[in-house]
Every structure is written in structure tokens, then in C-alpha cells.
Amino acid sequence: MSLLLRNAEVLFNDPVSVGLYHMGLRCPEIAARIQPGQFLMVRVLETLDPLLRRPFAVHRVYSNDPPTSFEILYRVVGRGTRILAEVLPRTSLSLLGPLGSGFRPPDQDGFMLMIAGGIGIAPLPFLAETLVESGLRGPYVLWFGGKSAGDLVCVEHFQNLGFAVELATEDGSAGRKGLVTQHLEKWMSRQAERPTMVYSCGPHPMQRQVAELVRQLGVKSQLSMEALMACGVGTCLSCSLRCRPPDRGQDLYYANVCQEGPVLLGEDIVWE
Ligand SMILES: Cc1cc2nc3c(=O)[nH]c(=O)nc-3n(C[C@H](O)[C@H](O)[C@H](O)COP(=O)(O)OP(=O)(O)OC[C@H]3O[C@@H](n4cnc5c(N)ncnc54)[C@H](O)[C@@H]3O)c2cc1C
Ligand code: FES
Fold first, then answer.
1. What CA–CA distance (Å, rounded) separates 70 from 11?
2. For the CA of 233, the nearest ligand
3. Atom 38 in ligand 1: which residue has the minimum CA distance?
């Protein structure tokens, strides 16, 4: 499907926790087309500096019929996101998208496990809503880890969708103390049922451990991968990631995460 270059109206841009913001954007054409796990390249200022757009996943699409607006959730980490946090309602922001290949629905109904680390929660509510609305009955479980309690946003939203939510924080301020992957392994070993599909988004080391764990269990996983992205459309090669060819031959190749991802099958990624 062709990508769009559109101006969106900022509906709101509010903090949800320390350093975390959510921004509502009105852009009917993108709202109607975007799929869970796809992303947008956002121009944070209408000047030449900063030159590069920044990539953001769509967090939620508001369910008007047809949808007209959506939300992004972002963490302030550098210059671009600092500028974004200052943007006022009614500002017009240039968006390029929908980009990339997002999450796919599972082949069959069953146990859906979602795993998020920190801002990796961003694309999962849109995915969760889409799966639940499509009639897949689950059961649904979210494992969500962060550095501290302030990172664990939108938990209630998942619970309202029918998810069982398990939390972990590195400092122990909410949920179990430690990394989400430390607890996940023990928890998985106690489950009678294996997940039909594992959907995961978070930092590279977390994704690597998730991929290893699901490989041992013989379970399929779809991982939304982080990569530095300059263009978002497959021309700059800044986002390449070593993968195995889809036909499972011995040769390796470099996938452009912005086009073949950001969501890739865990089994296709070569972890370095
Ligand atoms: C497909 C995709 C979807 C994304 N979705 C979201 C989202 O929904 N919410 C969100 O908060 N962030 C998301 N990110 C990350 C976000 O794009 C970066 O945090 C942002 O571009 C940083 O811009 P900056 O100018 O503030 O930081 P910069 O000044 O450019 O960098 C500050 C720090 O952030 C790191 N950084 C920059 N870009 C990335 C990146 N792509 N991945 C990991 N670390 C990075 C840099 O290495 C540096 O340490 C996504 C990234 C990708 C590739
Ligand atoms: S971001 Fe330029 S090729 Fe992927």
C-alpha cells in the first residue's frame, strides 16, 4: 500500500509519567490505513534542523468509524523528542507513513503472550485492541517490565481488554524485582499451555532473550526491533539487521528493519 506524506493536527500532547508523553494526532487517511506495529516518520519541527524525521509506532487508533485520529506514546531521550514534548495542541506536524511491516495475527486462536520492556509498550495496545476486536478469545497475558513503577503505563487498559498483566521493575518499585526476562522464564515453565504466539517489543538484549526462550519452547514469536533510522523507506541502510534468508538456507543477509520490519520473526534474526 502506498505511503502518505500528510500534515496531522496535534489534538493533545501531555505527560503521562516522568519523561513519557502521549500525543493525539488527527489524520484520517493515516488513521484508516495504519496497522498494528507499523510506524510513522515524524518531522518534529518545520525547519531544516533537525533534518531527520523520528520514527514512532502508533500506540492506539481511536475507534470511530472510519477512524480519524490516533495516538503515539513517546519517551524523551534526546533533542528530537525534547522538541516534540514542547509541541502545542492545534500545531500541524508532518507525518510520513504508514511504514514497515507490522504484527500479523496468529494462524489460530489460543494463548497470546505479549512482552514489553519500557517504551516497548508503545505499539502493543493497538495490537491488543485489534486482536480482541477480531474475535480471538485468547487467553491474553502481558508481561511488562521497566526500570521503575513510572515506566509501567497503560496497565489498566490491558486489564480492561481482558489481559492478565504481570509486572517487573529493576528497582522493585512495582511488580517483581528484576528484569522481565528473568521472571518470564520461570513463569513460562509453570504454564500448562504454550503460547500460540508471542509478540514482543523492547530493547535489543530483552528481545534476544525472548527469542532464545521461545526457541527453546518451540513457539513462534514476532519481535518489533529497534534500529537507528534515518530515512524510514529503505534507502539509507542505517537500519540493517543480520537475518537468515526466509528460505532458511545457510546464507545470511541484511534486512532493512524499516521495510521488512520493524516486526520480524524471532527465528529469522541472527543475534550478534
Ligand atoms: C520503528 C520504530 C518505532 C519507534 N517507536 C517509538 C515509540 O513509539 N515511542 C518512542 O518513545 N520511541 C520510539 N522509537 C524510538 C525513537 O524513534 C527514538 O527514541 C527517537 O528517534 C529519538 O530521537 P531524539 O532526537 O530524541 O534522540 P537522539 O538525540 O537522536 O538520540 C538520543 C538517544 O536515543 C537513542 N536512539 C535514537 N534513536 C533510537 C532508536 N530508533 N532506537 C533506540 N534508541 C534510539 C540514541 O542512540 C541516543 O542514545 C521507535 C524507533 C523505531 C525504529
Ligand atoms: S531507515 Fe533508511 S534504510 Fe531503513
1. 9
2. 2
3. 228
- Among 17, 22, 23, 54, residue to substitute to test ligand 1 (most atoms within 8 Å of Cβ): 54
Rounded to whole angstroms, how far apart are CA atoms 123 and 111? 19
Cα–ligand 1 centroid distance for 259 (angstroms): 17
Structural domain boundaries, residue 209: 103-224
Length of the chain: 272
Q: Ligand 2 centre and the CA of 101: distance in Å?
A: 13
Peptide bond into 28 cis (omega under 30): no
On whether both 113 and 43 belong to a single domain, the answer is: no
CA 204 to centroid of ligand 1, rounded, Å: 13
- Ligand nearest to the CA of residue 39, numbered in listed order: 1
**Residue 166 has which C-alpha cell?**
504481570
pLDDT, tens only, 89-123: 999 999 999 999 999 999 999 999 999 999 999 99
Same domain, 64 and 129: no
pTM of this prediction exceeds 0.85: yes
**Are 109 and 212 found together in one domain?**
yes
Statement: residue 248 has pLDDT above 70: no
The preferred substitution site among 53, 59, 77 for testing ligand 1, maximizing ligand atoms within 8 Å of CB, is 77
Tens-place pLDDT, residues 202-212: 999 999 999 99
- Segment 183-239, tens digit of pLDDT: 998 999 999 899 999 999 999 999 999 999 999 999 999 999 999 999 999 999 999
d(CA 20, CA 58): 15
